[in-house]
Design a protein that fits this description.
Keywords: Hydrolase. By secondary structure, the protein is α/β, with parallel strands linked by helices. It contains 7 helices and 9 strands.
């Protein structure tokens, strides 16, 4: 998706590359640049999931601090030569942060917003009980001509049962199949809450 632009008070707000809304309160994109900060403020983000191993740029960190946005970093390599497989445990940890509505609104991004981001969104769709063909179609649409078969294989093989077993204190229920009907419902229980640690950068 091309970077969106909105005009507010005569100014231009540029969205990050490959920006789109996954669900109400969940967004995805490529790596945000300083010229995208104005647009990001309109999302009222609480959290960002960053899926690359490289340190977050100082300018971006200052933006997060100024806007009280929490950073969760999950260092997933994106090498293609030799190809790097998606680490299941890391994706599972990122998914636990993603489905916790206390972290919403939330932005997911890697560098291009295609492969690592696409795998995480694909696993979310499986938790939401999307049919597999629709999950893989969404991944390919966002990855474009650079889609990767190993990513499709990872999404298809990902076991969502392990996620449900890890959420001890929060129940997430997904309703409906249509884009606007699927939503996350959050219900607290009187047991100890698992601690989700923000990544140190």
């Amino acid at each position: 998706m091309e970077a969106a632009e909105d005009h507010v008070d005569g100014g231009v707000l540029a969205a990050p590359s490959n920006f789109s809304m996954v669900e109400d309160g969940i967004y995805r994109s490529g790596f945000p640049k300083p010229e995208n900060f104005g647009f990001l403020t309109t999302l009222n983000l609480r959290s960002i999931i960053y899926l690359c191993p490289e340190p977050y740029p100082e300018e971006n960190l200052k933006f997060l601090e100024a806007n009280n946005i929490k950073l969760f970093q999950f260092g997933i390599e994106g090498k293609t030569d030799p190809p790097t497989l998606m680490p299941k445990d890391t994706v599972l940890d990122a998914l636990k942060v993603l489905v916790d509505v206390r972290n919403h609104p939330i932005l997911i991004h890697c560098k291009a917003g295609k492969h690592r981001t696409g795998c995480l969104v694909g696993c979310l769709r499986k938790v939401q009980s999307w049919c597999l063909s629709s999950v893989l179609e969404e991944y390919q649409k966002n990855a474009g001509l650079k889609w990767r078969q190993r990513d499709l294989n990872f999404i298809e093989a990902f076991d969502t049962l392990s996620l449900r077993q890890c959420l001890l204190s929060i129940m997430y229920r997904y309703h409906g199949y249509g884009f606007k009907r699927k939503r996350l419902l959050h219900e607290e229980e009187n047991v100890q809450t698992p601690k989700l640690q923000a990544a140190k950068v």
